[in-house]
Every structure is written in C-alpha cells, then in structure tokens.
Amino acid sequence: MIASTPVTKQGQPCRSFGMDLNNPPLAIDMDQLAVLIGARLRSLRNAFYLRPQDFPPAIDIPGCRGVRFLMADVLVWLETRKTQTAPAPEPARRPRGRPRIAQQQRGRP
To answer: How many whole angstroms separate alpha carbon 65 and alpha carbon 28?
Structure first.
C-alpha cells in the first residue's frame, strides 16, 4: 500500500483529513483524493465533473455529500495513469544566422 506520508513542496506533511496512510480507508472522498495525489481540490473537482470517465469509478452514497472512491480503484487508476518516458528525438539542426549574399546567388538556402 502507501509506505510514506506525502509532503508538500516545502517539505511539510500534507493534511490527511484524519486518514492514516499506513492503514487507508475503504473509500475516500474528493478532498482526500486531492491530498493523496497532490492536486488542488477545485481543479480536481472541475476535471471530475467535466470528464468523469477519466477518474476511477465513483460511488454515490445516500446521505453523503459528494462522491466517494474505493481506495483499491484509486490505486489501480494511478497505476494506469503512468506514462512511459521515451528519450526526446533530437531536433533538426537549422543553419545559423542569415545566409551570405554569395550563398543566396548560388541558390543555397
């Protein structure tokens, strides 16, 4: 599962909303998901309502505000979001500077 406590860019522990990261809950809400992945709550919520198919399956629990996500689904979702980084191709070299008049007259670029 999750081995360490997430930290902010300043090196301080993230707010976990009472969530013990060594023993995660069965379901988490949008606030806890934002803390878990290090995203802003408002951005995450907007993205969820615009494209819910890009998120783990949501659970609507009667009597609770907002949606919940099963922790197992979140972990699988995070694994599928990994990208394979390939080395970037080297850009084509362009000639330096302005061409000389002699090169322009010969037809060279």
So the answer is: 12
